[in-house]
Amino acid sequence: MQKMKTSFYSFYAAGLLAIGLPFLSQSCFAAHHAGSNPEANLEKLGIDLPTPSKSIANYVGARRIGNTIFLSGHLPLRKDKSVVIGKLGKDLTVEEGYQAARLSAIALLATLKAEVGDLSKVKGIAKVFGMVNATDTFTDHSKVINGCSDLMVEVFGDKGRHARAASGFSSLPLGAAVEIEMIVEVEE
Hints:
There is one protein chain. With 188 residues, the chain is an alpha+beta fold. The chain is 41% helix and 21% strand. The protein has 4 helices and 5 strands. Strands 1-2-5-3-4 form a 5-stranded mixed sheet, with helices on one face. Helix 3 packs parallel to helix 4. It starts with a helix and ends with a strand.
């Protein structure tokens, strides 16, 4: 009986490693190899940062206090400047929400670059706050906001890892699928 338990646990552990290591290796590889040149990483990803959108109300897109930049909530904008609209759990799939969050991340990076001039001045992404337009039964907010978080790690490597909240809302401005704000530490 003891030998059977040992074999089962060995088999179980080997299965976990087989499933988990490729994922872990890919994410560690991406984070490690993102390097310290975020501009080059964006180019490798085929991402051209757009001109930052103008604020639609009485606020600014970015506010710098010392070495900290507070970025306002950014909506998911397509290249034609249209907003990805819809409610997760009703109109959009998790993958569509993930892509919307990635578009919000690109908009955040555009505003950040306009503020600092060069993304290599970023010391670290401190915090991401993701808001998801979702039904009251939707529970995959984190999977949606991963669209932003994953891009930050692809662009900045370990400097892109951040604290985060992903929350559901019954509506967002303009009916947007997501809205994401960010806090960034930069060089003096």
